[in-house]
């Protein structure tokens, strides 16, 4: 009888523990990276991104994401936080983090991801220098100073 | 005759009031969504500015290592 009740309570305890672990895993996955972690990665990439923009190799797209202006520039190497990577890899990493940021802000402000992305596109267009390339909807890459 | 004219004038006035009052109500309803849109845009802009506040502090020339330039301009990539 004692053994039986011990087994029952230990099974319950094990199931409870498994449930807590499962919920913890779900919460971690759903939440993804924290805002601080995201910000840190943006911060590390920023000098390389800004420099590539100035050189006209990458530019801002109207969708709120970074794009490759020069086809051949994708294989060029850049250094981010002491680590070497290609420009293409940098763009992929930047855009993946932008998606995460947009998702988190959309949830926080009770709006859509598209809305946040659109506002960030406007923000980046406004901040762009005259020689930086921008991609407006249904238009080719154009330097900001040449946009009418 | 005079009475008929005054009655019809009054009824015309009442009908005109009936048209004017709902028109005013509709006007206030239309303003509300615009106000809300501006409000959410401001909130989003503020959050984005706060998040990217480091951009003002970092000078891109400090840590640049963009490779050589080659290739031509192309279309979309994101």
Molecular structure report:
The complex is a heterodimer of chains A (148) and B (78). The model of chain A is unreliable at 23-31 (pLDDT under 50). The longest helix of chain A has 30 residues, at 2-31. Chain A is α+β, with helices and mostly antiparallel strands and 148 residues long. Chain A has 4 helices and 6 strands. Chain A is globular, with a radius of gyration of 23 Å. Chain A has helices at 2-31, 35-54, 87-109, 113-127; strands spanning 58-61, 66-68, 77-80, 83-86, 133-135, 142-143. A 4-stranded mixed beta sheet of chain A has the order 2-1-5-6. Chain B is mostly helical. Chain B contains 2 helices and no strands. Chain B has helices at residues 2-51, 54-57. The longest helix of chain B has 50 residues, at 2-51. Chain B starts with a helix and ends in a 21-residue tail after the last helix. Chain A binds chain B through residues 35, 39, 42-43, 46-48, 50-52, 54-57, 61, 63, 65-73, 76-79, 87, 91, 95, 101, 105, 108-109, 111, 115-116, 119-120, 123, 127, 133, 135, 140-141, and chain B through 40-41, 43-45, 47-49, 51-52, 54-55, 58-78.
Distance between the termini of chain B: 80 Å
Strand order of the largest sheet of chain A: 2-1-5-6
Strand content of chain B: under 5%
Principal-axis shape of chain A: globular
Largest interface: A-B, 47 and 33 residues
Unreliable runs of chain A: 23-31
* SS summary, helix count of chain B: 2
The ordered string of helix (H) and strand (E) elements of chain B is HH
Oligomer: heterodimer
| Class computed from helices, strands and strand pairing of chain B | mainly alpha
Q: Provide the helix percentage of chain B.
A: 55-70%
Based on secondary structure, the structural category of chain A is: alpha+beta
The count of DSSP E runs of length 2 or more, i.e. the number of strands of chain B, is 0
């Amino acid at each position: 009888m004692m053994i039986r009740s011990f087994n029952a309570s230990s099974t319950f305890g094990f199931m409870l523990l498994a449930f807590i672990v499962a919920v913890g895993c779900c919460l971690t996955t759903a939440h993804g990276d924290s805002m601080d972690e995201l910000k840190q990665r943006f911060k590390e990439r920023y000098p390389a991104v800004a420099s590539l923009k100035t050189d006209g190799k990458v530019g801002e797209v109207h969708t709120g994401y970074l794009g490759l202006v020069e086809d051949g520039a994708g294989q060029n190497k850049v250094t981010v936080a002491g680590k070497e990577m290609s420009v293409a890899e940098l763009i992929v990493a930047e855009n993946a983090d932008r998606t995460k940021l947009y998702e988190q802000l959309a949830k926080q402000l009770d709006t859509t991801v598209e809305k946040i992305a659109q506002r960030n596109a406007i923000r980046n267009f406004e901040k762009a220098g005259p020689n930086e390339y921008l991609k407006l909807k249904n238009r080719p890459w154009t330097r900001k100073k040449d946009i009418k | 005759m005079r009475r008929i004219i005054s009655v019809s004038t009054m009824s015309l006035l009442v009908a005109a009031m009936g048209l004017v009052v709902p028109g005013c109500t509709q006007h206030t309803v239309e303003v509300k969504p615009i106000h809300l849109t501006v409000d959410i845009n401001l909130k989003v802009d503020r959050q984005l500015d706060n998040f990217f506040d480091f951009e003002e502090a970092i000078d891109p020339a400090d840590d640049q290592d963009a490779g050589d330039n080659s290739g031509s301009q192309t279309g979309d990539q994101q």
